[in-house]
């Protein structure tokens, strides 16, 4: 059964860790919660953003939701109580730069966010400060992912490149070329 009948395009969908909800982020500028048994909206909470939700992830250690939007914001939501507990966060100088994807490190201490202008920012989950900005790609970042040890980030771009960043040590990224068109997704294997 389709959730709630007709839906707008969704950026991401995931189950809550307890399996009680399905969470979705969509182009109608909302984060929605659904009952997986009935397919109905739970009425739990639907929050509105200014623009499209482009990425949504579960921060499982604290049962929080991290979401990115095309309005350039990142928000952190308390899964149980609903209202955001942090945000919207607008990256420094990021007045119109859309968040295209987000990733949470395996230790759930930092967030990586990829932007329309080809930058990747790494955020501290506790202080909410930008730790570093990575810029080597010339077009939209379509995907960001942490290595299993959390020391590296791979970013995919519409400029047909993949970059592997040692975000803690800095320095130039490892450049992976070979695609003839936009790279839409990238991730590390678990091992």
Produce the secondary structure layout.
Elements (H helix, E strand, L loop, with lengths): L9 E6 L6 E5 L3 E5 L12 E2 L4 E7 L4 E6 L3 E6 L5 E7 L8 E6 L5 E6 L3 E6 L5 E6 L5 E6 L5 E6 L4 E5 L7 E3 L15
Antiparallel strand pairs: 1-2, 2-3, 3-4, 5-6, 6-7, 7-8, 9-10, 10-11, 11-12, 13-14, 14-15, 15-16
Which labels suit this protein?
mainly beta; single chain; about 190 residues
Could you characterize what this model shows?
There is one protein chain. The strands form four sheets. Strands 1-2-3-4 form a four-stranded antiparallel β-sheet, with no helix packed on it. Strands 5-6-7-8 form a four-stranded antiparallel β-sheet, with no helix packed on it. A four-stranded antiparallel β-sheet has the order 9-10-11-12, with no helix packed on it. It is built from no helices and 16 strands. The chain has strands at 10-15, 22-26, 30-34, 47-48, 53-59, 64-69, 73-78, 84-90, 99-104, 110-115, 119-124, 130-135, 141-146, 152-157, 162-166, 174-176. The protein is an all-beta fold and 191 residues long. The mean pLDDT is 81.
